[in-house]
Amino acid sequence: MAHPSGAGHGLNLPRNSRVGTIEPVLSTDDATSLLARPPLSTSENGVYRFVDDGAYANSFGLQWNEFATVQLDTPAHPDSERRMLAESGFTPESIAGRKVLEAGCGMGRFLDVISRWGASVAYGIDLSSAVDAAATNLADRDNVAIGQADIFDLPFAEGTFDAIYSLGVLHHTPDCEGAFHALVPFVAPGGEIAISVYAAVNQTGALSAINLNRRKAMRSVTKRLPKPFMLWWSKTAPPFFVKLAKVPVLKYLRFAFPVMIYTEHPASWSVLDTFDTFATHYESRHREKEVFDWFRQAGLVNIDLLPSEDGWVSVRGRKPAA
Ligand SMILES: C[S@@+](CC[C@H](N)C(=O)[O-])C[C@H]1O[C@@H](n2cnc3c(N)ncnc32)[C@H](O)[C@@H]1O
Question: How far is it, in rounded angstroms, from Cα 58 to Cα 119?
Answer without folding.
Answer: 29
